[in-house]
Write a structure and sequence with these properties.
- It is a single chain.
- The chain folds into two domains: 7-217, Spore Coat Polysaccharide Biosynthesis Protein SpsA, Chain A (Alpha-Beta Complex); 219-297.
- 44% of the residues lie in helices and 18% in strands.
- It has twelve helices and ten strands.
- The protein has helices at 20-28, 49-59, 75-83, 105-115, 150-155, 184-193, 215-218, 221-239, 244-267, 271-284, 290-297, 304-324; strands at residues 7-13, 36-42, 64-68, 90-93, 99-100, 119-130, 135-138, 147-148, 165-167, 197-210.
- Strands 1, 2, 3, 4, 5, 6, 7, 8, 9 and 10 form a ten-stranded mixed sheet that branches.
- Strand 6 and strand 7 form a beta hairpin.
- The protein is globular and about 65 Å long.
- InterPro entries: Glyco_trans_2-like, Nucleotide-diphossugar_trans.
- One of its GO terms (molecular function) is hexosyltransferase activity.
- It comes from Bacteroides luti.
- Pfam families: Glycos_transf_2.
Length: 333
Amino acid sequence: MNAKVKVSVLMLTYNHEKYIVDAIESVMKQQTDFPFELVIGEDRSTDSTADICREYQKKYPEIIKLTTNEENLGLQENFIRSYNRCSGEYMAICEGDDFWINKHKLQIQADFLDSHKEYSACFHRALNYYQEDGSKSIGNGGYQKKVNTVFDIINCNPITNVTVMFRLGLFGELPSWFSKVTSYDFAIHVLNAEHGDAYFMNNVMAVYRQHKESIWSMASSEKQMLISVINRQLLIDHYKEKNKAICDKLTETYTNGCIRLVQYYQSIGNEEKVAETELFILKANPSFTVEQVKEMEKIRKAPLKKIISQRIFRLVKVIRREISKLIPLPKIK
């Protein structure tokens, strides 16, 4: 590839033989007026994923950079190794079990970042596809803000990886602690958003596939809460001396996550974990008293009006989910 790469597309894959063709094809069918590269991190799959990737690399040697790890590195190390091979001005992500459905996606997002230097990233809506039962939903509904600050992302990360494009190198090299994060997406989006807001595009341009083999789907409720808490703790340490406002917001959401963990441990009668998590809360918030923490842990009954509203919402969601099974899954053309 002679011309300078504009966009690096990062694709992490492990045991995705059933999905990887859709992922790669959706990248290779992108129509752009600039060069892009596809950087694949193949993490020593035990199925035919690596062979499929090699075939595509032979077909597109000028575009595809393939790394086949000699041993399974795990998600974080595979991300770090692949991220460091990217050379573009911007980065987009399409993991090996997801795919794009708009052949102009890269062009649309790169054009936006070119003309809006104040933003660090842009992202769009995705079609959530639940592989096991064939149901579908669309993420980032009407409530989604157009302009998302770092505080918005810390409060509730709205960015699905398969939808994002961001500027590479805003914060320099990946921090030394990055290998300790348990899910790279939240950390990378916070680090980027420190340098500029993230803009939301109300277009559905990708499919986010959820299936029983995916890392997030396989995680228990407890593990998902722990992932959130651990990632925030690492970021708190990162920003402690660097940015008080960001550190304070991270501490607030870390504390809320710990409270939810305490409530979970109380529900299963694990008093040892309750006490341990309470100590984490007190350590993160030196001004808190034990009594204050105990008060925060109380589960307050929602008003009747809110309970009725929630039940109606859940019923509508079930109906919509059943109807969605009849709608064909879109593919890139």
